[in-house]
Specification:
The protein is α/β, with parallel strands linked by helices. It folds into 2 domains: 2-148 and 293-339, Rossmann fold; 150-290, Rossmann fold. It is 38% helix and 22% strand. It contains 13 helices and 15 strands. The strands form 4 sheets. A 7-stranded mixed sheet has the order 3-2-1-6-7-14-15, with helices on both faces. β9 (198-200), α8 (208-220) and β10 (226-231) form a beta-alpha-beta unit. The longest helix has 22 residues, at 149-170. It starts with a strand and ends with a helix. Bound molecules: 6-O-phosphono-beta-D-fructofuranose (F6P).
């Protein structure tokens, strides 16, 4: 049995723990593992690297991915009559040829909705693949947790603890911009763990008027500082519910987000007389994706990696390993692609609001 592995999309701590688990479990079963570098690009351009016991030794806690990553897409995503169509390009044939050349029986793809979306769309073309959920955004359908999310939460929580002390001392409204394109998992759970006073997420468009009202209410209670956590994909009603974006667009048609924190600070400054709080902005950005993986992430990555290999050994294809409660279960990749992004449920959003 020959198993190929790739890591695609935004990286996160825990990927290397997963690669280690894949290699160790495959080795135990006498299967060979071939690494493809830089996501789907490695399959298109036939960029391999050996992935044996030696290569995965000592990488358990390390962030990043020893395979490298990219946002290469062998399909063209086009909108037709409001529907998104994945049109195959000549790169699809190249991916399949590379797999055939290396006699890959099953390809394990580690990534978020884009990377696993490619796997799902390659299955009808004859690819045999198993997916592993990995995105700090935690927005993949079919799994409670994706690799990287637990570590991102810890990073955000520690940042909020630190920002609390300085905003308290200076009587400031500290705006903390976190990642979260379509779903506010990091903002809601990180914000709750770090004691945020206002949490703004893509799921619920917000108005500056409401934010000002909340800050004023805290001032009336004698609280002369506030922590506002805003997801990069949050949608102000003043912008017609549109997200604040940058210029760059990736191969999956996603425009780079970022800037909502500074946008909000400028709006709050317009209310400085009533608020008596100076706004300041901290953009956590790529810090959320860097550094060593937490214990939870290492264990999650290990369990998902081992199960993915076992599913491949049993001859499965077209599934993602999902963590559901205490169990790791196979979920059809097609369903993952069709139902992602998984949004934060109302009850969690309302739970966070109790602490505003
Ligand atoms: O992988 C998810 C994510 O972290 C998003 O939250 C964010 O919008 C995006 O990646 C940033 O990606 P890039 O690394 O391409 O700037």
């Amino acid at each position: 049995m020959r198993i190929g592995v790739l890591t695609g999309g935004g990286d996160s701590p825990g990927i290397n723990a997963c690669l280690r688990a894949i290699v160790r479990r495959a080795h135990e079963a006498g299967a060979e593992v071939i690494g493809f570098q830089d996501g789907w690009k490695g399959l298109v351009e036939d960029l391999t690297m050996p992935l044996g016991l030696k290569e995965v030794s000592g990488i358990l806690p390390q962030g990043g991915t020893i395979l490298g990553t990219s946002r290469t897409n062998p399909f063209n995503k086009v909108k037709k009559n409001g529907e998104t169509i994945w049109e195959p390009t000549d790169k699809v044939r190249k991916v399949l040829d590379t797999c055939a050349r290396h006699r890959i029986d099953c390809l394990i793809a580690i990534g978020g909705d884009d990377t696993l979306g490619v796997a799902a769309h390659l299955i009808p073309h004859g690819l045999r693949a198993v997916g592993i959920p990995q995105t700090i955004d935690n927005d993949l359908w079919g799994t409670d947790y994706s690799i990287g999310f637990p570590t991102a939460l810890s990073i955000v929580t520690e940042a909020l603890d630190r920002l609390h002390t300085t905003s308290h001392a200076h009587h400031r409204a500290m705006i903390v911009e976190v990642m979260g394109r379509d779903a506010g998992w990091i903002a809601v759970l990180g914000g709750m763990a770090g004691g945020a006073d206002v949490i703004l997420i893509p799921e619920r468009p917000f108005s500056v008027k409401d934010v000002v009202a909340r800050l004023k209410k805290r001032l009336e209670l004698g609280k002369r500082f506030s922590i506002i956590v805003v997801a990069e994909g949050a949608r102000p009603v003043e912008l017609g519910g549109k997200q604040v974006t940058q210029q760059e667009v990736d191969a999956f048609g996603h425009v780079q987000l970022g800037g909502i924190g500074y946008w909000l600070a400028a709006r709050l400054r317009e209310h400085k007389d009533e608020l008596e709080l100076t706004p300041r902005v901290t953009v956590l950005a790529y810090l959320q994706r860097g550094g060593i993986a937490t214990a939870f992430d290492r264990l999650l990555a290990t369990r998902l990696g081992v199960r993915a290999v076992e599913l491949a050994l049993e001859g499965n294809s077209g599934v993602m390993v999902g963590m559901q409660g205490e169990r790791v279960v196979p979920v059809p990749l097609e369903e993952v692609a069709a139902n992602s992004p998984r949004l934060v449920p109302d009850e969690l959003i309302e739970l966070a609001e109790i602490f505003y």
